[in-house]
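User: For my dataset I need records formatted as: sequence, then structure tokens, nothing else. Please produce one.
Assistant:
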Amino acid sequence: MHRAELETYQQFFNLTLDLLCTANSNLFFEQLNPAWETVLGWTRDELRSRPFITFIHPEDLEKTNQVASQLLDTSCKLVDFENRYLHKDGRWIHLSWVATVRNGVFFASARDITQSVATRTALASSAARLRTIIETAVDAIITFDKLGCIESVNHSASRIFGYQASELIGQNMKILMPSPYRKKDDGYHTKYHTIGERRVVGIGREVSAMHKDGTSFPADLSVSEYVIDGKKMYTGIIRDISGRKRLEKLKNEFISTVSHELRTPLTSIRGSLGLIAHGVTGILSARTQEYVDIALSNSERLVRLINNILDVEKMNSETIELQVQSLDLISVIKKAMVVNEAFVTAYHVKLSLIGDLPEKEMMVMADEDRLIQVLTNLISNAAKFSEERKLVELSVERIGDHIRVSVRDYGPGIPETFRRRIFQRFAQEDSSDTRKRGGTGLGLSISKALIEKMQGNIGFQSTVGSGSTFFFDLPQLPQSTTQDPVRAQRASRVLVKSRTRGSQFHDVIMTSFSRRKHS
């Protein structure tokens, strides 16, 4: 070898960042490049002073000795392996080796992979935790491809559906569907694959699923989409809601009992007390009149509470009926003011419709009785929280293609801490000042649900110490529709909201993820 060539190799030996070395058959280092000192902290003389196996982690000694014996005793030309080397400061450095033997001399290169090992260990630990979470989840978790072919299931999927994992993997999702959906053609497809319309992904649905023994059960299903290695995949999370349905049935039976067995006699009691209070049976003494008035007031309060609870239940089950038709909003507001005049007067408050009323009718599509119910809730709340001899102001204005109705009071305002909960059921500001005004805490929740079912929105503005304004917006009917009696009549309609079971597994899975049909 020429001197120049030797110097080139020596320069490469000294400058490379990998650890290069030679060692004799007694396992002592002979040559070491400077990288050893950089990576391990020992001087090269310190490393050469004792067998290199004394620097190796005790758990890696057997493996390293086996590699050395393999290189010495066989014709193996090249071996790669990993072990841990002791740093001078006491840390263990992970090294990845490539070694060979020539004429009884070990030639080896090593690279510091400590960070890579740490990352690999962290990923493995994270994957193990994720597997544990998936396997211990209460809900069934199933992954499948766009054809509906199942690729993995967790333990709960086996428990809920009654199959072993091996019985599900490779099968189509139709196996979990009740008839007639499991008999559908695999080629069934939908807009999701043909034009990209999302009907299920990211949206929870209630479906009917089927156990291995053929019994069906209600379930909540949510589906998410992801791409791995260029392949589109889906994860379905399924929860058996049979228990919840049983409780709902018991609750519905209780509500029915309240409706028929409690409200009916209570209404009769209230009517009888009303007749007595108004002197139909004769003039009452002052003390008797006081007791009758108290009983009448409390019976009316109970009737309102029962009616509110029934309304909440109807909206929960989406069985509330809305007789939606075209209405002149100004006329409805004036009716609500007449209906609530006596109630407001009892609080020594006056109602006023303020602002410039439009010359033309302000037409909306709404249920008149339910709209008056909403206005009654807002007006009664405003009256209860207003100071005596103050006004409760109603106003109407156009905002874009909507009409806004506002009810303003000059009461104490709504505390900041209560504003987030104000439309929740049974929400009441917890103070003696509020409690003495009465109420069930259901009125605003019901009002919000009713306005939203009429395609509107409800909200409020409030300043502590200056009062509050509650408002709702409803879409205004186009002027061309309100001017044309025939079109107005066609626009009038009855909306009946009824609770229906969400689409079955076939509609949810096969409808969204089956392969396309090609013409």
